[in-house]
Write a structure and sequence with these properties.
It contains 2 helices and 11 strands. It is mainly beta and 124 residues long.
Length: 124
């Protein structure tokens, strides 16, 4: 089992910011692609951001312009910077690693491994 180490969740007021980080084993960071997903209570999982093999990011419409995803090569990690947070962003956020061909589809990602999740709570 491959472990993805997530960190950075927490509680914040609407309009605030949070930064999530996910570190993957070097082999998977180098040879596969990573993304962030979330699941809010009572809702289906939503893909929110992923990076393809060329380093290009794809975002869900719900977070476009507010969230930024970047790769951290020194840490073998994927960072999600979340700005202008809204109460509807409240969810458990999961990091994932999977096949690059399709990872940025966000809707049906070919995920190999999921992280444990980190909770983000945004209050109004």
């Amino acid at each position: 089992q491959v472990q993805l180490e997530e960190s950075g969740g927490g509680s914040v007021q609407a309009g605030g910011s949070l930064r999530l980080s996910c570190v993957a084993p070097g082999y998977y960071y180098t040879n596969y692609c990573m993304g962030w997903f979330r699941r809010a209570p009572g809702k289906e999982r939503e893909g929110i951001a992923a990076v393809d093999a060329y380093g290009s990011a794809t975002y869900a419409d719900s977070v476009k312009g507010r969230f930024t995803v970047t790769k951290n090569n020194s840490l073998h990690g994927l960072v999600l910077q979340m700005m202008s947070l809204k109460p509807e962003d409240t969810a458990m956020y999961y990091c994932a690693v999977g096949y690059c061909s399709g990872m940025t589809s966000l809707t049906s990602p070919p995920v190999l491994y999921w992280g444990q999740g980190t909770q983000v709570t945004v209050s109004s």
